[in-house]
Amino acid sequence: RARGGAGRDAILSAYFPGLSVKAMPGMGRQASVVRIELPESDRRDLSEVRDTAQRLLASVARQLDATQPADTVVRFHSTVESYTRETGQPWWTAARTRGTRIDLVPLGVLRQRGTLESTLRHEFVHVLTDSRLRDRPLWVREGLAVILAGELGVPPEGPRRDRIEPCPTDAELRAPTSADAWRHTYAAAGACVERALKTGRRWQDLR
Questions:
Q1: Global pTM value
Q2: Taking CA 125 as the corner, what is the angle to CA 105 and CA 178, rounded to the nearest 5 degrees?
Q3: How far is the C-alpha of 132 from the C-alpha of 32, rounded, in Å?
Q4: 5 DSSP 8-state letter
Q5: 64 C-beta neighbours (distance < 10 Å), count
Q6: CA of 193: how far to CAs of 50, 152, 164, 174, 207, in Å?
Q7: In this structure, which of 26, 42, 76, 135 has its CB flanked by the most CB atoms within 10 Å?
Q8: Contact predicate 197/152, CB 8 Å
Q9: Are the C-beta atoms of residues 69 and 131 closer than 8 Å to each other?
Q10: Span 5-34, average pLDDT
Q11: Beta strand residue intervals within the chain, DSSP E
């Protein structure tokens, strides 16, 4: 079941219907565990990457005032081809999150791009908020991740903050025609969320 992508709660509920999993009193957010999966060639970086991931997850959870999941899996693929084959994402993307499992392009690729920490932050936002925001437009979920990852305004071709553009549709975010279009639509989603947050709305209330 785990190899098929099932999470902890789904696996336990299959064998123990009605089971409720909760943190023990006093454990709080420290009970969260981030499991890192690296190809053998990158195993020497395991400790550093795990420490970075745990630090960033805790930081994002504080920003969102959200509880960290008990178990998060962060898998770095050995090649971009492996990542695209298993996730179905275009080569120009960096990661995909499903529940509490994150699939990423190779560690070396993210380091070369200088986006390791921002990519992890972006995906941790999804881990912490997607279940709460699952009925919202995609621009809300992706835009919030863009904002908290510090990615707004990074691409030079992104929308100008002094020019209001319409929020991208779900179709535009799901099926960009090029890497440039992908960057532009994500930046537009971030700009929409930024405008909404400036009105005083909480992230939980974005629609």
A1: 0.80
A2: 45
A3: 19
A4: T
A5: 18
A6: 30, 10, 12, 18, 9
A7: 76
A8: no
A9: no
A10: 72
A11: 33-37, 71-76, 95-98, 101-104
In degrees, to the nearest 5, what angle opens at C-alpha 21 toward C-alphas 17 and 26?
A: 160
Question: pLDDT, tens digit, for every residue of 102-153?
Answer: 999 999 999 999 999 999 999 999 999 999 999 999 999 999 999 999 998 6
Q: Quick one: 84 exposed, middle or buried, by C-beta within 10 A (0-12, 13-18, 19+)? A: middle
Which contacts qualify for 175-179: CB closer than 8 Å, 24 or more apart?
Answer: 176/90, 179/90, 179/92
Tokens 């939980």 sit at which residue? 204
Residue 83 CB: number of other CB atoms within 10 A? 24
DSSP per residue, 74-90: EEE-SSHHHHHHHH---
d(CA 58, CA 190): 22
The sheet with strand 71-76 has its strands ordered as 33-37, 71-76, 101-104, 95-98
Query: What tokens does 22 get?
Result: 């909760």
* CA–CA dist 181, 64 (Å, integer): 28
Lowest mean pLDDT among 2-6, 67-71, 121-125, 152-156: 152-156
> Is 155 within 8 Å of 122 (Cβ atoms)?
no
Give me the mean pLDDT over the 35-55 stretch: 95
Give residue-wise pLDDT tens across range 69-105: 999 999 999 999 999 999 999 999 999 999 999 999 9
